[in-house]
Amino acid sequence: MTQTPFRGRLQFLLLAALFFAPLLAAMLFYFVFPDWQPDARTNYGELITPARPLPDLPLRDADDAPVPVAVLRGRWSYVYLAAAECDAACANKLYQIRQIRTLLNEKRLRVQRVYLAPDTAALSAASARLAADHPDLKFYADTPDAAYRRFFGGADPHALYLVDPLGNWLMVYAADAESKGILKDIKKLLRVSQIG
What transmembrane ranges does the database entry give (predicted)? Predict the structure, then answer.
């Protein structure tokens, strides 16, 4: 009879240790030994921390009419800052983004591709040249004072910018970013996100 209460207490203590030991170990590694944290991150692109909201300035269409910045909200947007002319590197980048979007299958409707020309003349030329090969590509021109180019920084002329459905700049991909890494990032974002 005296062994039963002792055995019950021992089982309770073992269960408590099984529950609290991993929690205690995680707290120790996070707060006491931060150098044990892994350096690698799970995202492929460069994360913008904190995410920066887009300027509340209208874009322009081919007729130079204002387009509300809301066109970059509601869906995940890959924004490509184009030059005055779309050269071979530009065409390759547009093809890459199209293939990534296609590989998303039914989730592709949650993602849009945006071509942001420097002015309306470049926008008209690009739209005439590229619309047949890229029917789902959205064509817009930057503001007259290039507000969006200044916002994104545009140091890399063929970088790709990811904007979330709330209108926040979230990630940037270098010109030489591989499709596999970009696809992995957007799949993960679409899986965990309930917006867009």
Answer: 12-33
**Residue pLDDT, tens place only, 174-190:** 999 999 999 999 999 99
Tokens in use for 60? 């322009």
* Whether the Cβ atoms of residue 110 and residue 75 lie closer than 8 Å to each other: yes
CATH number of the 46-192 domain: 3.40.30.10
Q: Who contacts 9 (Cβ-Cβ below 8 Å, separation ≥6)?
A: none
* 129 phi, psi to nearest 5 deg: -80, -35
Tokens of 126: 């690009």
* Radius of gyration of the chain from its Cα atoms, rounded to whole angstroms: 24
Report whether 176 contacts 158 (CB < 8 A).
no
For residue 157, what pLDDT is reported?
87
CA 18 to chain centre: 39
**Contact by Cβ (8 Å): 90, 82:** yes
Structure tokens at 70: 């809301």
